[in-house]
Design a protein that fits this description.
This protein has 2 domains: about 1-30; about 35-194, Cupredoxins -  blue copper proteins (Immunoglobulin-like, Sandwich), CATH 2.60.40.420. Strand 1 and strand 2 form a beta hairpin. The longest helix is centred in the N-terminal third of the chain and has 25 residues, at about 5-25. About 15% of the residues lie in helices and about 40% in strands. It contains 2 helices and 12 strands.
Length: about 190
Amino acid sequence: MKESTWFSLVAGLIALAVIALGALAVAFPNGPEPVAATHQVSGGNPTVYRNLSIALDPATGTFGYSTTQLSVPTGATVVFTITNHDPMIATLPTASDAQVVGTVGGTMQLTTGGVVSMLTQVSTSDVSHTFSISSGAYHLNVPIPPASPEGTPTVVSFSVTFPISGTFNWGCAVLCGPSDMMATDAMYGTLTVS
């Protein structure tokens, strides 16, 4: 095989590998991560992935988070991905409920109906739930838009860095339904940073 043909073949294979990796990055922007994966960043703090969902509990008839007890390592940057299956809009959300506060870059990524957007806020008429911490060292608020009436969930992703250890309360800060708000371990929990 001629040397120029060999280099062309290798260059073509490298180009295909780059295209395939790019396609994987688009298909899995947060990586195909399990609920509690951790990756050590060379020379830095770990990146941790926490995947949650908000879904109807058939036993109680209420919507709730898939888990309410969370733990992350101190100093970690946590990438949260929350999939919301609830089509209802919260009652009387305020402008502050619709703002993204405390995330890395002050943004969240919203995927709805296959469309991906980077947002710093949503309309007050487009808040179903929030993921909020207003406890101790952290002030975090991420509005979560409702699923479509047809049942297509919305997916919200955002990153938060947790440099201070402790146990912090988190929950939904809007009136998302009386039975949902009162259900034990549905819309409130704790985040342990250690």
